[in-house]
Each structure stands twice: as C-alpha cells, then as structure tokens.
Design goal:
alpha+beta, about 25% helix, 6-stranded antiparallel sheet, about 400 residues, 8 helices
C-alpha cells in the first residue's frame, strides 16, 4: 500500500502522498526496526515502546517486510538522493537479506527470530513456496541494483561498496574490494577518452568523512563533503584508480524501546554469536501449515547469556581477534560457560542457534534480573503448555482461521 502511495505521488506529483510514504518509512526505520533492518513479530508491529515480544517470540522479523522496505527505500532515494535511505538500505541488505538464504543446502527464511538461542527454518523446493520464497528469489538478485546512481552525465554516485562493473555512457567503472573484511574500496575509471565529471562516494553513517582519505593513482586528492557524499571532481583518464578508506568502528545499539538489550555492530555489520546446532526441529521445512516456523524447543531464556557490564562502556568487553577478519571476542557474559563468546557477522551464521541481542545488567542487579527472567519464562511456558488453541485478536491470520 505504501509503495503504492509513493508510485502515485511520483506519477501525479502528489506531495501529500509523497509525505505519507516518507512518514511511514521514517516511523518504521526509526521506531520499529532492529539492527538487522527487519521489523515485526508474527507479521505485525508490536507497541513501539515494548519490544519484549521480539526477544521471546520464535516468529521474529519477516523477510517480506524488509523486501518491501527496500523497494520503498529505493523509490524514496530516487527522488531525493538522500543518503539516509542508502544507510538503511545497506544495513538491511548486509544483515537481514543476506542472512536469509542458506549457502549450504539452499532455501529461504520466513521468520528470523531474535529470541536468544533460537534458530531459523529454511524452505525446500518440493515442500515450501511461501511469500518469502517468492520475494526471496528477487532479494538475492538485487545485490547489484543500488550500487550506483547518477545525476545527468556529470555526476556518478557510488552508494554501496560491492565489487561490480558499470558501463556509464562511454565510461567503464570497476569497483573492487573485500568489503567489509577490508575497510576500503577501489574504483577504476576507464573512459573512452579523458572526461571531466564528479564521482560522489557515499559517506556512510558509520564512518567519519575526514578519515576516508581519497587518493587517485596513489596520490591524495581534494574532495568535498557535500550532501552526504565525498565529491571528487577531475578530468579522469583511462586506468585512473580512486581509492577510498572506509574506517569502521564498534558500537552497541539498544532496541528502539530503549530497554537494556544491545546488539553489537562493526561498521554496517551486525555481529552475532553461534550457540550450537542442537535440537533444530524442522530446520528444513515440510509442507505443513506452520512449516515456516521454528517450532522446536525454546531454550530457557534464564539460561541464555547475560552481559554483566557497564552499559555506558560496553566496548571495553569486546576485542578484535587478530588474523581473523570481522571476528571479535566478547567477555563478561554469564553463566560461566558464556564468559567468552565469539562474535562474527550475523549473515555468516547458518543452520545454528544464535544470539543477536544481549541483555545488559550491572553486577548488583544480575541475580534479581535472572530471577525475573526465570519467573516470566515459567509463567509463559505454563500458559503455552495449558493452551489447546488461541486467537490473537486484531491479527489477520488468527482471525481468518
């Protein structure tokens, strides 16, 4: 519907409908989305000031939601060139979308649970054709879609740092890198004959423009930070190589409800920890009505890691593992067996139980917090075990059933 608002706005020049699409996007991204770029529980928004169901449900962010948010983001960017749209696009692409295809067995993911210690279910060719399989096929054909844009013949915009080749008029552009394992990108320019134009490299939300340090053929060049881009204007000759540093740093991001649950990011990449491959019932979906839901045993939340630390100084608990790109060591978690955990890009974890959000408590509050979690878990499980069936009022699927 909202994509429709934007399409009609563009055709008719309808400013009111354009603002409606912008308002929806801003509300979802700022108030409803978690670090991976996804949103919703059981296909519905929960209260914006209470994300507790996100951390307890096995039906976390739905892939189709993010698929449609990317479509809307693209349309909003095309009429604004606002880099805030590309910041979200990059985050959702690298963390949610990339994580929803199984590189081992094949198959797509419907729900991505944020419940600690839970897992995802993958579709199979002969049993599953959910909405997130149809859109899933499109998702992974889109990686080349938003890397570049242009404004006339004089401005080329580099939005994403994905190795690629672009024919732009009479100029061949090649981007090479090992991003995000390498914190830089190289853009080789090959015009038919020397040509004057501006290459505008996006300044990501996760870096500092003053540290991007562009060079051409190894020599520093003048660049202007304007409109969210680093602009390098010159007469480009065949074989010119523009190299741009993309320094990344660690940060902790709380849930939008401001509760003390934190996800860790390095640059645009969400970090997560594997919690093993045990008891993944229905890992590969059958043809049942609920085959897309990871319905296996839910590990008790009171047994899951809790980070005992100062929430204002969480980076003190994380160190980089030398010699292993995008790998970090997290210390300070309890129980004891989780005292040291390995963090890697969430999109690299497959066919396993995992953890993306850590509850953070102080040393003095830890015992009380564990008791509170255990009490809430016991109450929830008692209700689940006593329930024969349920209807969730106001949600489409239970009501139609």
């Amino acid at each position: 519907k909202v994509i429709g608002y934007k399409r009609i706005a563009d055709i008719e020049g309808n400013d009111q409908w354009d603002k409606a699409a912008q308002f929806f996007w801003k509300t979802v991204v700022d108030n409803r989305s978690i670090t991976i770029g996804g949103n919703s529980v059981r296909e519905h928004f929960h209260p914006a000031d209470d994300f507790s169901s996100m951390l307890t449900s096995e039906q976390g962010p739905e892939t189709c939601n993010t698929y449609n948010m990317l479509r809307l983001t693209k349309m909003l960017y095309e009429t604004s060139a606002d880099t805030h749209y590309m910041d979200y696009y990059e985050r959702a692409l690298y963390n949610h979308i990339l994580s929803t295809v199984n590189p081992i067995q094949g198959g797509f993911v419907y729900f991505t649970p944020m419940r600690s210690g839970h897992y995802r279910v993958y579709s199979q060719p002969q049993t599953s054709f959910w909405c997130c399989v149809g859109s899933g096929m499109e998702n992974h054909a889109r990686y080349g879609e938003m890397i570049y844009s242009h404004g006339g013949a004089d401005n080329l915009y580099v939005n994403l740092f994905i190795p690629s080749e672009l024919t732009w008029g009479k100029t061949l552009i090649t981007q090479t890198n090992r991003f995000p394992a390498e914190e830089a990108t190289t853009i080789t320019v090959n015009p038919n004959k020397p040509a004057e134009f501006t290459i505008r490299v996006r300044i990501p939300e996760w870096t500092d423009a003053s540290k991007m340090q562009p060079t051409v053929n190894g020599q520093p060049v003048e660049a202007k930070a304007e409109g969210g881009y680093l602009a390098i204007s010159r007469k480009w000759a065949k074989g010119d190589k523009l190299h741009v540093q993309l320094p990344m740093s660690l940060r902790a991001v709380s849930l939008p409800d401001k509760s003390d649950n934190y996800s860790f990011m390095y640059g645009p990449i969400v970090l997560a920890s594997s919690l093993g491959k045990q008891e993944q019932l229905g890992l590969f979906a059958d043809d049942s009505r609920g085959g897309h839901i990871a319905g296996g045993r839910q590990l008790p939340l009171q047994d899951m890691p809790v980070l005992v630390a100062d929430k204002n100084n969480l980076m003190a608990n994380i160190t980089k593992v030398e010699g292993r790109p995008m790998t970090f060591r997290l210390t300070g978690s309890v129980p004891e067996k989780y005292a040291e955990m390995t963090l890697v890009p969430f999109s690299s974890l497959h066919e396993c139980r995992y953890m993306v959000y850590w509850p953070v408590v102080s040393q003095q509050d830890w015992q009380a917090k564990q008791e509170e979690i255990a009490r809430a878990e016991a109450e929830r499980q008692a209700i689940e075990q006593a329930t024969a069936d349920k209807v969730i009022c106001g949600e489409q699927q239970p009501e139609s059933d």
